[in-house]
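For this section, I looked closely at the sequence of one protein beside the tokens encoding its backbone, which the following lines show:
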Amino acid sequence: MIRLCSPRDIPSIYAIINDAATAYKGHIPQDCYHEPYMSLNEMEQEMQRVSFYGWEEDGKLLGIMGSEPILDTTLIRHAYVLTAHQRKSIGSHLLAHLIDITKTPMLLVGTWSAAKWAITFYQKYGFQPLFNKDELLLKYWVIPDRQRETSVVLGFNVKGGR
């Protein structure tokens, strides 16, 4: 079941992100990877502006995906599934949900260029790499220059917005 997460879910969201982000270790630049991948303080700040949707089974969150409308677009933020529950369509269900509820004409997602599995996942659902990624990352995200240098942006046209 997909549901909107609340501040009471912060510990679960924090655990999901830091569990799933271990996949980046050894793939993204070493100077960009740290443990925990996201601090609890960062998680609490993200919760202030990102709407998180979670896949829940038996009262436990197994995956999350955030949505952040900015200007004329919506960003997918922090899309993660617990390692033990990956490859069970949880990410696919969450992505379909975000596409369905997006009210802007464009849905964007940024990820590490080395995260080929993530890029492939989004491309499977019609997201296309955008060649003006630096411009987009500067306009819509607040990230360090090093992360911008090693990232890609993929876009999805949401049938004229809703």
Notes: The helical segments are 10-20, 40-49, 90-101, 116-124, 133-140, 145-149. The chain has six helices and seven strands. The chain has one domain: 2-157. The longest helix spans residues 90-101.
